[in-house]
Amino acid sequence: MSQENSCCRVCSRGLYSCHWxxxxxxxxxxxxxxxxxxxxxxxxxxxxMYICLVTFNDREDVNWQGFTKLKRWVNWFMVVIIISAVLxxxxxxxxxxxxxxxxxxxRLDLHWLHKIFLFFGVIFVAFGITGISLQWQQEWPTVPxxxxxxxxxxxxxAVGALTLLSSFVFHGFDRAKxxxxxxxxxxxxxxxxxxIFLCPLFIQSPCLIAPSDLPDKPKLIGHRGAPxxxxxxTMMSFDRSIACGVTAFETDVQLSKDRIPxxxxxxxxxxxxxxxxxxxxxxxxxxxxxxxxxxxxxQRLNAGEWFLKTxxxxxxSQLTEEExxxxxxQSIPSLLQLLVLAQQRNISVIFxxxxxxxxxxxxxxxxxxxxxxxxxxxxxxxxxxxxDTVILTAPGFIQVYKSETKMFDKGGNHLNVKYSNLSTEKxxxxxxxxxxxxxxxxNDRWLFSLLxxxxxxxxxxxxxxxxQAMEHPDWVMAHGRxxxxxxxxxxxxxxxxxxxxxxxxxxxxxxxxRERQSNNTSAWNEKELSPFLPTG
Length: 536
Ligand SMILES: *[C@@H]1O[C@H](CO)[C@@H](O)[C@H](O)[C@H]1NC(C)=O
Ligand SMILES: *[C@@H]1O[C@H](CO)[C@@H](O)[C@H](O)[C@H]1NC(C)=O
Ligand SMILES: *[C@@H]1O[C@H](CO)[C@@H](O)[C@H](O)[C@H]1NC(C)=O
Ligand SMILES: *[C@@H]1O[C@H](CO)[C@@H](O)[C@H](O)[C@H]1NC(C)=O
Description:
This protein is of the alpha/beta class. The chain folds into 2 domains: 1-138, no CATH class; 219-468, Phosphatidylinositol (PI) phosphodiesterase (TIM Barrel, Alpha-Beta Barrel). Helix content is 55%, strand content 8%. The protein has 21 helices and 9 strands. It has helices at 7-16, 28-55, 59-70, 76-104, 112-135, 142-175, 179-198, 235-243, 278-281, 295-299, 305-310, 321-328, 335-345, 358-372, 387-393, 404-409, 424-432, 445-454, 464-468, 479-518, 522-525; strands spanning 219-223, 248-255, 261-263, 348-353, 379-381, 398-399, 414-418, 436-440, 458-461. Strands 1, 2, 3, 4, 5, 6, 7, 8 and 9 form a 9-stranded mixed beta sheet that branches. α2 (28-55) runs parallel beside α5. The longest helix has 40 residues, at 479-518. The model is unreliable at 521-536 (pLDDT under 50). The structure holds 2-acetamido-2-deoxy-beta-D-glucopyranose (4 copies). Residues 285-289, 292 line the site of one 2-acetamido-2-deoxy-beta-D-glucopyranose (NAG). One 2-acetamido-2-deoxy-beta-D-glucopyranose (NAG) binds at residues 285-289, 292. The chain crosses the membrane at residues 33-56, 76-100, 112-133, 153-171, 183-203, 485-503. Keywords: Glycoprotein, Hydrolase, Membrane, Transmembrane, Transmembrane helix. Its main location: membrane. Pfam families: GDPD (PF03009), GDPD_2 (PF13653).
């Protein structure tokens, strides 16, 4: 802190407060207040970024919701992620500059432009959180679930940050004038440190097990095929999912006017709009019903061009030219086509039935399956509506349930639920009872790893090609080993902080002596040395 206007000093001052020259008006209190705002905004934006990253697994939900409302495909989730990333980097940089200012002994006036940006940032995050709470409530359980995968690393990060920031706290402590404020700083610091140091005592994760106890890798079920590698619910998509070793095809069935079961997810007012060129082929008609078109008419639609145009998973660039040509030429497949492929490859089929006419559609679907000659034990029957009839007409099908109580009532042993609806303890309990547990839709590595550790039987996924390549979960650690690691990390941090504190006291005393000797109080004392200084 020698030169009054060294380069980095001016730089930091300019970027944070836009005071290129050192003015000396006294607004310390306000400046300190804004420093707290910057810190809180950084923390808030980090938390928000974390939420965005862990809900990335379900980005398709958001984009699909957007489509059903606006009838236009936009990658909304990516837009939110990019804005959030910019906002988070901005807040963190601002905080770093603030700390830099403190370290340089500069004043902490925040420029008004930063105040406005911060205000918009906070509003954006508030909107995001309200949006999730109102429109996407079922997503909240993903956040605590993700902590089972990330908490050990977040704790190491927090210990690191605490160690780095401790010198600023010690600085504030030394310069505090009254015993009361010293006690306040010390007790706040001790409480926060204790919480950070000891939280591993409360961390639970299915991956804290001996590597030898790791269950088998979950089997993969292709969600509408391999929708990142080919347009969903097309024969190309199912072909590509075979290449990633899936044990079952997941799909969606509806019936045409002439009672042919075909594969299409969207129904109601969105029917055919997202994944086909229905607007081009039938410009003046609006179909809201699978029985609006005959099988012959459905086959005239293209079910692949949309994939290349909208690139829903930002994965089209990974396709070869030949694959792009094939994708461009896909039509809507019938259920029969899929059954033939499944029988050839000995792969199971599980599907939802989007049916406005439960009884008739169920009967026609079951007879299509029985007539196809497929081994009935390859059919995982999921639609609950006419289950009792199906059990009578097709006793060979495997019955899969969406709720645990229903399953036990009917004496079944196959369960298919959303990944966040079962706790890891519950998964283990069900597996001990020999229940086959399939969870949907699992797309990100951290989630797959966690469920692997928990021991699920299979997952429905968009990312079969990524999971196929995984040989281990992202991490598995014996409990004892984790305890050793976090205790060592905590101890190291304590040592470093003690060292920093001793250094701090020494320089502090040295400064005091010099000040007294030179009797020149103007250069140092007027300056803002610490935002942690109590106001008194
Ligand atoms: C589609 O089917 C529904 C229900 O049967 C009917 O009300 C509607 O008019 C049909 N739309 C077209 C374009 O045929
Ligand atoms: C693509 O479709 C067109 C007609 O829609 C057909 O003439 C052509 O043979 C198809 N190409 C391939 C590679 O299937
Ligand atoms: C089909 O796969 C199952 C296991 O997934 C296996 O038990 C069975 O023997 C296979 N059948 C044929 C005909 O390969
Ligand atoms: C689960 O299956 C295993 C082997 O198939 C068997 O030994 C065990 O008794 C079964 N457990 C229950 C609760 O049925």
